[in-house]
Amino acid sequence: MTDVHRWEVPGRVNLIGEHLDYNGGPVLPIAIDRSLTIKVRSRDDAVVNLWSDLPGSTKVSFGTGVQPGEVEGWATYGAGMVWSMTQAGHDIPGADIVVESRLPSGAGLSSSAALTCGIGAALNELFGLGLDRTRIAQLAQRAETDFAGAPVGMMDQLTVLLGEVDHAVLMDTSVSPPTTTTVPVTWEEDGLTMLVINTGAHHALADGEYAARRDECERAAAELGLEWLSDATLDATVRLTDDTLKARTRHVLTETARVRGAVSAINRRAWAQLGTILTASHASLRDDFQVSCPELDVAVEAALEAGALGARMTGGGFGGSAIALLPIDRLSAVRERVEARYASHQWKPPQTFVVHAADGAHRVT
Ligand code: ADP
Ligand code: MG
After folding, report:
1. Could you read off the pLDDT of 188-224 as tens digits, one per residue?
2. From start to end of the chain, where are the E strands?
3. Which domains does the chain have, with CATH numbers?
4. What is the residue with the minimal CA distance to atom 15 of ligand 1?
5. Measured from the CB, is residue 321 less than 6 Å from ligand 1?
6. Per the count of CB atoms within 10 A, which of 98, 232, 308, 362 is most buried?
């Protein structure tokens, strides 16, 4: 029997800087204390077996030479990571991989990056491949874009690999790969907490609209002669002729400013100001970028009504999760208000849980 290595890999929430990672802007995510456990064991027969406790999943087996299109369904991301690693010339003799999850899948909390990066980090160590974390993040991004067909930036992968307990990760996405610095987050010392509200909604629009936003941002940047839309200045919103492109640009440039404001507020422990900035980000994503949905808007409104300092959707939008920053003594009130508002719409109750900034992927045994 060969050794089993066990890894813990967090999900993430983006505090602020939404839809900026493909516009060259700053983003400010945290890794969260909701994680996947990934157990790996080596094989020498060029076979990979994948098990998961994801509802409805049964064991999937494929060869280490797996190609795009050969594995579909729940195992796509896992197979995609093996493909991405072998494609880049890294030798994987074979592996048994078991995934156990405390991180909801498809909730905008980056279970996909936790899975691909966790498999990458675990196989890297198991087979002594010598990859650094940034390289693993790049390979994981490639698994998502070129194997699973999801055209994502690199924020999620870098966060789940480089996150640090009690810190956010400030990323500059104008360079490739993005550079990162950590920012201490101390709201808990001042009696605040962060609540995730998983709406449970997945609107079918999500993939198409995400691609459409990327395309609109590229068109706006081209019209303004900019490499990155996040470099746009306020007069850009006047010069652009198309109202939709104007609104998208307005989101990108105001969101870029809000990330800077959020970092400053965090450093000064100016929590009310941070809350105001988070809520303004939501309004911009709802009105200018148009990636929210009723379930996210109601979650944000209800949290604010019940005493949150600020709240916003996090992740790509059209469903998924919202976050709220609130005094710990408002926790029950916020939960109850969100649940009551959902019940009045006859929506399924949302899942809510408190998160702390946690460490990135690490080996446990
Ligand atoms: P998100 O990253 O927001 O959770 P995605 O749609 O990007 O949502 O990723 C979800 C996909 O990630 C799942 O369809 C599955 O392929 C993979 N995944 C997530 N969690 C698990 C798990 N526990 N076991 C196996 N695969 C998982
Ligand atoms: Mg994902």
Report:
1. 999 999 999 999 999 887 889 999 999 999 999 999 9
2. 5-16, 26-42, 47-52, 60-63, 95-101, 167-172, 179-184, 192-202, 310-314, 319-327, 351-355, 362-363
3. 5-183 (3.30.230.10), 184-355 (3.30.70.890)
4. 74
5. no
6. 308
